[in-house]
């Protein structure tokens, strides 16, 4: 168990090329964790867990970017780049659904980097 008085060390790890175009999604792994890296239509990168929290479809295979969200085509749950989950009905009504884990990321030196704890 870690000492709560000891500051947690964090590091930045390159996870994908920053050549990712708006609307693109790539699959990757970090250690044993399945992740997707995607870019919104406005150009913001996002790194999140790859498995949809509804019924675990892989967003690298079943995901599509619509505007500033990634949509799981299996049952149309959608996630913002901050990880909020929603389902949009035919009438446009949006209902809150389960959230998905998002990792802090940045672009630098033509790479997309994620921040993680150094002991992970
Ligand atoms: S598995 Fe993704 S919406 Fe159902």
Give a written overview of the molecule.
The strands form three sheets. A five-stranded antiparallel beta sheet has the order 5-6-7-8-9. It has a four-stranded antiparallel beta sheet with strand order 2-3-4-10, with no helix packed on it. It has one domain (20-117): 3-layer Sandwich (Rieske Iron-sulfur Protein). It starts with 9 loop residues before the first strand and ends with a strand. The chain is built from one helix and twelve strands. The chain is mainly β and 120 residues long. The protein binds FE2/S2 (inorganic) cluster (FES). FE2/S2 (inorganic) cluster (FES) binds at residues 52, 54-55, 57, 72, 74-75, 77.
Compact description:
This protein has 120 residues and is mainly beta. It has one helix and twelve strands, in the order ββββαββββββββ.
CATH superfamily: Rieske [2Fe-2S] iron-sulphur domain
And the CATH topology?
Rieske Iron-sulfur Protein
Biggest sheet: strand arrangement: 5-6-7-8-9
**Total domains, how many?**
1
> Could you spell the SSE succession in H and E letters?
EEEEHEEEEEEEE
Low-confidence stretches: none
Helix content: under 10%
CATH class: Mainly Beta
Instruction: Give the name of the CATH architecture.
Output: 3-layer Sandwich
Number of helical runs?
1
Instruction: State the total count of DSSP E strands.
Output: 12
Major beta sheet, specifics? 5 strands, antiparallel
Strand content: over 45%
Whole-angstrom Rg: 15 Å
Task: Describe the protein's topology.
Elements: E1 10-17, E2 25-30, E3 33-39, E4 45-49, H1 59-62, E5 63-66, E6 69-72, E7 77-80, E8 85-88, E9 94-97, E10 102-103, E11 105-108, E12 111-117
Antiparallel strand pairs: 1-12, 2-3, 3-4, 4-10, 5-6, 6-7, 7-8, 8-9, 11-12
């Amino acid at each position: 168990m870690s000492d709560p008085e000891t500051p947690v060390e964090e590091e930045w790890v390159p996870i994908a090329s920053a050549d990712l175009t708006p609307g693109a999604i790539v699959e990757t792994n970090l250690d044993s964790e399945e992740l997707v890296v995607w870019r919104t239509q406005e150009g913001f990168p996002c790194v999140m867990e790859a498995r949809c929290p509804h019924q675990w479809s892989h967003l690298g295979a079943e995901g599509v970017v619509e505007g500033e969200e990634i949509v799981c085509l299996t049952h149309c749950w959608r996630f913002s780049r901050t990880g909020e989950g929603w389902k949009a009905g035919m009438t446009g009504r949006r209902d809150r659904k389960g959230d998905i884990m998002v990792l802090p990321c940045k672009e630098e030196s033509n790479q997309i980097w994620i921040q993680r704890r150094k002991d992970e």
